[in-house]
Amino acid sequence: MKDAIFLSAGVPDPKRGPQFAATADSVAIGAAVSALVHVVLGRRPLVWGGHPAITPMVWVVAQDLGIEYARWVRLYQSRHFQDEFPEETARFQNVTLTDVVEKDREKSLRHMRERMFSEHEFAAAVFIGGMGGIFDEFELFRQHQPHAAVIPVLSTGGAALEFEKRVADLSTDLTTERDYVALFHRHLGISVKEERYSTPDMQPAAVADRLWRPGKQRGA
């Protein structure tokens, strides 16, 4: 997939990551994930490694957009966590299951992430909430996709908040803006006039040809 958007998101577990749970805003995390899916799907491919709390959120928004979501999303899951997959995972029909590596959690996760970041061409990565694994994804993403934008939504708290120490010159609206739809339109460079298309094959190559104009037949 070209011009894909990578989503790294999670709701921190107070037991496994109390320091991240202490700053996390679960309502903001849900709102930001929903807004990202709304802005992106039918316009850009969306790739993520399924977090049990996030995959259902993506599903709820995706099924209401009137697109063939299986053509626009790619969900990666490690078989190491197969017993923890939410039921929505099977519904996406576009899941890449990656191998268990030496029965080791961290090695299996790294293998999954290496595949995610090497199999697609990304325009940006968006980081929402989350725990320490977000930093591992950030470092690997930067290695594989050095020219892609990095968009940590600091206002969602959790590990995303720590990016102000790791990434220089972050825009202040990543901390202050709560209109996440507007935020993602700005930072991803996706016009509000850009139409959605049922499948990537239907989408014109030139962005200018995707924009809504009076009298133009809608793309989706």
> Architecture, CATH level 2?
3-Layer(aba) Sandwich
Radius of gyration of CA atoms, rounded to a whole number: 17 Å
Biggest pleated sheet: 6 strands, parallel
Strand order of the largest sheet: 4-3-2-1-5-6
CATH class: Alpha Beta
**Relative helix content:** 25-40%
What gap, in angstroms, lies between the N and C termini?
20 Å
Instruction: Please give the count of helices.
Output: 9
Q: Indicate how many domains the architecture comprises.
A: 1
As for the CATH topology, it is Rossmann fold
| Estimated structural class | alpha/beta
Shape: globular
Report on this model:
By secondary structure, the chain is α/β, with parallel strands linked by helices. The chain has one domain: Rossmann fold (3-Layer(aba) Sandwich). Helix content is 34%, strand content 15%. Helix 2 crosses helix 3, helix 2 crosses helix 9 and helix 6 runs parallel beside helix 7. The model has no long low-confidence stretch (mean pLDDT 91).
SSE layout and pairings?
Layout: E1 4-10, H1 18-21, H2 26-40, E2 46-49, H3 55-62, H4 69-72, E3 73-78, H5 88-91, E4 95-98, H6 105-118, E5 122-129, H7 133-144, E6 149-153, H8 173-176, H9 180-188
Parallel strand pairs: 1-2, 1-5, 2-3, 3-4, 5-6
Helix pairs in contact: 2-3, 2-9, 6-7
